[in-house]
Amino acid sequence: MRIDTLQPAEGSRVPAKRLGRGIGSGLGKTSGKGHKGQWARSGGGVRPGFEGGQMPMHRRVPKRGFHNKWATHYTVINLSQLAEVPAGTVVDFEYVAENGLAKQVKGSAGLKVLGTGDVKVALTVKAAKFSETAKSAIEKAGGTCEIIG
Q1: How many alpha carbons fall within 13 Å on the CB side of residue 68?
Q2: Residue 11: burial class (beta carbons within 10 Å; 0-12, 13-18, 19+)
Q3: How far is the C-alpha of 112 from the C-alpha of 131, rounded, in Å?
Q4: 107 φ/ψ sector (left φ>0, alpha ψ -120 to 50, else beta)
Q5: What's phi and psi for 57, nearest 5 deg?
Q6: What is the pLDDT of residues 104-143, one digit of tens each?
Q7: Which residue, 105, 103, 133, is CA-closest to 119?
Q8: Would you list the DSSP string of 37-94?
């Protein structure tokens, strides 16, 4: 392969429409713009979302919700996800990320453990937050909960 032989893939490049080149081209005279009006003018047309002066959709529909830019987002796992973890394991954020226990770990402020499910073995769980049910279930199984933060 040489640089002087490179060319685009077949069909990837479409030649530009040649407007106003005679009646036989099919795009002569008005060049596909019809007769007069806003759309026939140079720079004519309306901005995206314009509805002819009617109150536009983005102003008719009420605004809802609130996005708190200071909110803390934790990686959340349940006790049911810790059921298959071997006894004596130290479960922390790195362990959860490496073993794929949580659905999403990107951009997280730490680990939060919730109490859905059961833990049968003693684990050392290091997390930023625990729910009351999760903490009691881990301690009942003989494990320990360490709050790191």
Answers
A1: 4
A2: exposed
A3: 8
A4: left
A5: -55, -45
A6: 887 788 999 999 999 999 999 999 999 999 999 999 999 9
A7: 133
A8: SGGGSTT-S--TT--TTSPPHHHHSPP-----TT---PEEEEGGGGTTSPTT-EE-HH
Query: Shortest CA distance to 122 belongs to which of 95, 146, 90?
Result: 90
With tokens 């830019």, the residue in question is 69
C-beta atoms surrounding 79 within 10 Å: 21
Cβ(119)–Cβ(84) below 8 Å: no
Q: Which among 101, 132, 104 has a CA at the least distance from the CA of 116?
A: 132
Total residues found in the chain within this entry: 149
Overall average pLDDT of the 53-71 stretch: 94
Contact status, residue 109 vs residue 90, Cβ threshold 8 Å: no
Q: What is the CA radius of gyration of the chain?
A: 31
Query: Where is 135: in which H helix or E strand?
Result: helix 132-140
pTM given for the model: 0.58
